[in-house]
Amino acid sequence: MKKVILPTSRNRARRERVRALLNRDFAPLIGITVRVHWNLREHLWSIVARTGAARGCVIGYAETVALAKVAFHVSAAGRARSEALRHRTVHAWVNGTVTAINAEHDLSLLMRVTYNPAPDRPKTFVLSNGTPVLWAEHAVFARPSPHAEHGYAWI
Description:
Blueprint: H1 8-22, E1 33-39, E2 44-49, E3 58-62, E4 65-74, H2 76-85, E5 92-101, E6 112-114, E7 125-127, E8 132-133, E9 135-142, E10 152-154
Antiparallel strand pairs: 1-2, 1-5, 2-3, 4-5, 4-9, 6-7, 6-10, 7-8, 9-10
C-alpha cells in the first residue's frame, strides 16, 4: 500500500489545530464527563467531549489528565477491526469526570495500568500483575517520565 503524504498546507493546518487545542484554557473542562485516549500521532492525551455540542469531538490535548469515577473500555468490535486491518485504531479509551489537566502528579505511589492490542494479550486494561481493571475511583493519565514515548493510566 502506498503511503499518502499530505500537502504542506494541510500539515501546517493540522499542527495549528493541535497547538490551539494544547494551549487552550482547560479550566472550563474541570467537572465535565470526557473520554480520554493516547494519541499515537501527537504523543499526547486526546480529550473527547461526551456531552454537549462538541459531543464526540476532540476538545483538547494534554500532557496529563486526572479523572474521577473512571470506567476503562475496550471495544470488542474495534479490536477485531484493528486486528483485521492490521493497524492501530482507537478502540480503547477511558471515561470519567475531569478533575485536573496538565497538573503535576506523584506517580510513584500509583499502579500503572496498560492495554496492549496484540492478539495474544488480554482484551482489557490490566495492572502489571495481570489483574483486569474495569473501574477506578480516580486515575491519572501521564507519562512515567517527561521523555517517555508512551503515556499510561495510573490508579
